[in-house]
Write a structure and sequence with these properties.
single chain, 296 residues, alpha+beta, 9 strands, disordered C terminus, serine/threonine-protein kinase, ATP-binding, Protein kinase domain-containing protein
């Protein structure tokens, strides 16, 4: 965590080091940065600002300012802290709410796990680490994958559906919870719930009510002590994320030039731009962290 000297706000500083090692990795970093700047949703981590880069000749790393999140769901799950049924409902509601937004932008997260679900002290949750796009594989790849999956399943011993086992996963496993879980985990995608359908399940009604009653920023308190609710509890993206630019970049120099111009064009125009001071003691401490520890 760092302090933004412009307003004293505590924020997270994410470092993207060694950006230009390979063409593939540099395009992946560019994609992640564009996504962070594209996202406009309460339950998806986004960029608040980008630090001003050095001259193109010395441009090797990127620093992005994001909202500071105190923990993640993995740390909470393994901690002694008790998670109530209300916690489960409000967390699951926010996960699905963020996923609906991503899917509407034609983005698939593909790595949903507790460690990638950031949580604040007020239980607001944000999805992070959305770096890869999934396109349609060619017919040969799909044919191979399907045959391999079928062969693998046929070689395994046949097991009947173990629905009762789901009730043993948690003391909070009610009939509604198990019903939603089984529909979300259906093997056949035609029978599996979409994220929009999952959000409409009765199990999440209490989570939706709690989130929009006291946690969200899309609804606002009124002067008479009530609350003005938004007309759309689960908003979608205004347009799809554009990834056509990737096909235009065929060399490292092209990526470096375009990425540098992109950052310069996205610096906050109404604020003094920030840059890294490598001579400060704080920077030396920050730079000594491992790469996977530089997100907060």
């Amino acid at each position: 965590a760092v302090t933004d000297p412009r307003d004293g706000r505590r924020v997270a500083l994410k470092k993207m080091p060694n950006v230009f090692q390979t063409l593939v990795s540099s395009k992946r970093v560019f994609r992640e940065l564009r996504m962070l700047c594209f996202f406009k949703h309460e339950n998806v981590l986004s960029a608040l600002d980008i630090l001003q880069p050095p001259h193109l000749d010395f441009f090797q790393e990127i620093y992005v300012i994001t909202e500071l999140m105190q923990s993640d769901l993995h740390k909470i799950i393994v901690s002694p802290q008790h998670l109530s049924a209300d916690h489960v409902k409000v967390f699951l509601y926010q996960i699905l709410r963020g996923l609906k937004y991503l899917h509407s932008a034609r983005i698939i997260h593909r790595d949903i796990k507790p460690g990638n679900l950031l949580v604040n002290s007020n239980c607001v949750l944000k999805l992070e680490r959305i770096t890869d796009l999934l396109g349609t594989p060619n017919l040969e790849d799909m044919k191979y994958a399907c045959e391999g999956a079928v062969t693998h399943m046929l070689r395994r011993p046949s097991k009947p559906p173990a629905l009762p086992a789901l009730y043993t996963l948690s003391n909070h496993a009610t009939h509604e919870a198990v019903h939603l879980l089984t529909q979300m985990l259906a093997f056949d995608p035609d029978k599996r719930l979409t994220v929009t359908e999952a959000l409409g399940h009765p199990y999440l009604d209490e989570g939706r009510l709690r989130y929009h009653s006291c946690m969200c920023t899309c609804c606002a308190p009124t002067s008479c002590g009530g609350r003005q609710y938004t007309h759309d509890f689960e908003p979608t993206a205004s347009h799809a994320f554009d990834d056509t630019w990737e096909n235009e970049l065929r060399s490292m120099s092209q990526v470096k030039d375009r990425l540098h111009k992109f950052i310069m064009s996205h610096l906050a125009r109404d604020r003094v731009p920030l840059c890294i001071n490598p001579m400060s003691a704080a920077y030396k401490s920050f730079a000594s962290f491992r790469n996977d520890e530089k997100d907060c």
